[in-house]
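Appendix B, Record 12. Input sequence as logged:
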Amino acid sequence: MPKSAVYIALGSNLDNPTAQLQSAVRALDALPNTQVTAVSAFYRSKPLGPQDQPDFINAVAAIETALLPLDLLDHLQHIEQQQGRVRLRRWGERTLDLDILLYGDLVIESERLSVPHYDMANREFVIVPLYEIAPRLQLPNGEKLTGLADKFKSHHMEIIKGC
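Logged structural output:
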């Protein structure tokens, strides 16, 4: 079965977020017919939602996988659950959040999955690490990642060491 290039956003702001992301990368690499090919630096960012929560640690991982999109989503949700994910409130604190940003050149709109991720272009904590590992990437609509990254050139996210 042919493999697809997929980009996964990782985020955590509870229970040692750096360790949560490191564990998630190992879990991604252990998925069937899947290999992690690149991982961005880890970045500290302010929460997108309620501000009464800790800062997030975010990264993007590139994988090559033969898993179908919904099967991959099931695996990602299982990894989140294994690492203690509880959904308390929208955009709230969490031990781990894994989102499929891009799955090859596919455009998917279903009840469970939207690819490309619906708001990735407006999220500094997604675009900066994605650009770090895939600067020549082109989105399924033909837009070049370079154009999206330009609006975040003077980003204010701190890079976390030891990743």
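Strands lie at 4-12, 34-39, 42-45, 56-65, 97-103, 108-109, 114-115, 158-160.
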